[in-house]
TrEMBL record:
<feature type="region of interest" description="Disordered">
    <location>
        <begin position="226"/>
        <end position="248"/>
    </location>
</feature>
<keyword id="KW-0998">Cell outer membrane</keyword>
<dbReference type="InterPro" id="IPR050330">
    <property type="entry name" value="Bact_OuterMem_StrucFunc"/>
</dbReference>
<dbReference type="InterPro" id="IPR006665">
    <property type="entry name" value="OmpA-like"/>
</dbReference>
<feature type="compositionally biased region" description="Acidic residues">
    <location>
        <begin position="107"/>
        <end position="117"/>
    </location>
</feature>
<keyword id="KW-0472">Membrane</keyword>
<feature type="region of interest" description="Disordered">
    <location>
        <begin position="130"/>
        <end position="191"/>
    </location>
</feature>
<feature type="compositionally biased region" description="Basic and acidic residues">
    <location>
        <begin position="171"/>
        <end position="185"/>
    </location>
</feature>
<dbReference type="GO" id="GO:0009279">
    <property type="term" value="C:cell outer membrane"/>
</dbReference>
<feature type="domain" description="OmpA-like">
    <location>
        <begin position="184"/>
        <end position="299"/>
    </location>
</feature>
<feature type="region of interest" description="Disordered">
    <location>
        <begin position="91"/>
        <end position="117"/>
    </location>
</feature>
<feature type="compositionally biased region" description="Acidic residues">
    <location>
        <begin position="144"/>
        <end position="170"/>
    </location>
</feature>
<dbReference type="InterPro" id="IPR006664">
    <property type="entry name" value="OMP_bac"/>
</dbReference>
<dbReference type="Pfam" id="PF00691">
    <property type="entry name" value="OmpA"/>
</dbReference>
<dbReference type="InterPro" id="IPR036737">
    <property type="entry name" value="OmpA-like_sf"/>
</dbReference>
<protein>
    <submittedName>
        <fullName>Outer membrane protein OmpA-like peptidoglycan-associated protein</fullName>
    </submittedName>
</protein>
Length: 299
């Protein structure tokens, strides 16, 4: 059999089937996104929430609102829609990761009755002190007992010593890594496997968390280096969505490293979206290579 004659038609058929599958998957995904968008908007309207923008990538939603509180409320409503997998809240300053504290958190003012009770108690205590000669003798001229004065002096001394130690630590310059240490750290970080996430999400997979732990161990071996965590996506989806996704993934890796004991001031992050592909995307494997997180030694 002449392979030169047989192989070209086979290759054309395989590539054609791959392209057809890609088109079908894209159309199905767009249908899901449209359906979920309509359902989410209906849920927001029913909840009386206006001004919130909802965009879907697959079954994951990005909810943007004029304030952090509105974004959190809207994301909670969207997250309850059937079929929605995740709903991330975005306020004026970006991703909202926590809930706003209640305005009622301040301590309530004392009532008039409570104030009167405190005043009466203080008056009685002062009268007892004046009437007691032992109390007058045990009290120094400035109203402080000898024991209290001694304790205050000891406390002041300890505070001064702690402040001096803190100033010494602050004045001590941080050691810069040598060129060899930087190169070795970068080489070790490059050897780390790719960090994986749930599709169209900043949520780490089980394997992704394992790789982040490996990265934390490498950084512990090189305590002097500072690193920028860079997030990259493939070219599937809009530029805006991919840019935001890459930022969320890079930030998530930084947060995970900090939880594992890496000092936050050693870490920065940046998202590049689909703007810096590792390879020209021609196959699904190429797309997978372009979805990546890189560690770049900065100092």
């Amino acid at each position: 059999m002449n392979l030169k004659v047989v192989l070209p038609p086979v290759i054309i058929v395989v590539l054609g089937l791959g392209a057809l599958s890609s088109v079908q998957n894209t159309g199905f995904r767009e249908h899901i996104e449209t359906t979920l968008t309509e359902s989410a908007q209906g849920a927001l309207s029913a909840a009386g929430i206006e001004g919130a923008d909802v965009r879907f990538a697959g079954r994951d939603a990005d909810v943007t609102a004029p304030s952090d509180a509105e974004a959190l409320t809207a994301a909670e409503v969207v997250g309850g829609v059937t079929g929605v997998r995740t709903a991330a809240a975005y306020g004026p300053d970006g991703l909202v990761s926590g809930e706003p504290g209640p305005a009622e958190a301040a301590e309530p003012a004392e009532t008039e009755d409570e104030t009167d009770d405190v005043t009466d108690a203080a008056t009685d205590a002062l009268a007892d002190a004046i009437a007691s000669p032992e109390a007058s003798e045990a009290t120094s001229g400035d109203g402080t007992s000898d024991d209290e004065a001694t304790e205050d002096e000891a406390t002041d001394g300890a505070t001064d010593d702690a402040a001096d130690d803190k100033d010494d630590d602050k004045d001590e310059p941080k050691r810069e890594p040598t060129r060899e240490e930087r190169e070795q750290a970068q080489e070790d970080l490059v050897e780390i496997p790719n960090i994986t996430f749930v599709t169209d999400s900043a949520r780490l997979t089980k394997d992704g968390r394992r790789v982040v732990r490996e990265a934390a161990e490498v950084l512990a071996e090189h305590p002097e280096v500072e690193v920028r965590v860079e997030g990259h996506t493939d070219s599937v989806g809009s530029d805006e969505h991919n840019q935001r996704l890459s930022e969320r993934r890079a930030e998530q890796v930084v947060d995970e490293l900090v939880d594992l004991g890496v000092e936050r001031d050693r870490l920065t992050w940046k998202g590049f979206g689909e703007s810096d592909p590792l390879v020209v995307p021609r196959t699904f494997e190429d797309l997978e290579k372009n979805r990546r997180v890189e560690f770049i030694v900065r100092n």
